[in-house]
Protein: DUF4440 domain-containing protein
Organism: Pseudoalteromonas rubra
Amino acid sequence: MDILIAQETELHQYETRQNRDAIKRLLHADFSEVGMSGTSYTFESIVTMMSEELTTHLRVHAQNYSCDKLAPDVYLLRYQCALVGQQGEACEFAKRCSIWVLAQGRWQLKYHQGTACAPFELIVGS
């Protein structure tokens, strides 16, 4: 589902992560996350964490998306991602999954999990 990929990608952007209105639009009020470190986050704790982020030269590279319908208004989005530096060096490889729900007429991220994984080949153009 293209809208879910677009919204997931939007959450990778520093500008979005610094914009509380955008975060409230994209994240469900009951949002929860288990990060790559095993740390658990709630809506409020993730908003706080994002607001404290500093700009970086790293960008999120995501690829190999797949989407499964779990219920009429619930989808599971899965993909691989890595952080990539200006010279193309990649680090922090992860497999990620997100559960998106249709709430009040808009798609919102309700659950997200990132699991560290072995490095993989980056697909150019993803």
In short: The beta strands are 27-34, 40-42, 59-71, 74-84, 90-103, 106-116. The helical segments are 2-11, 14-17, 20-26, 43-51.
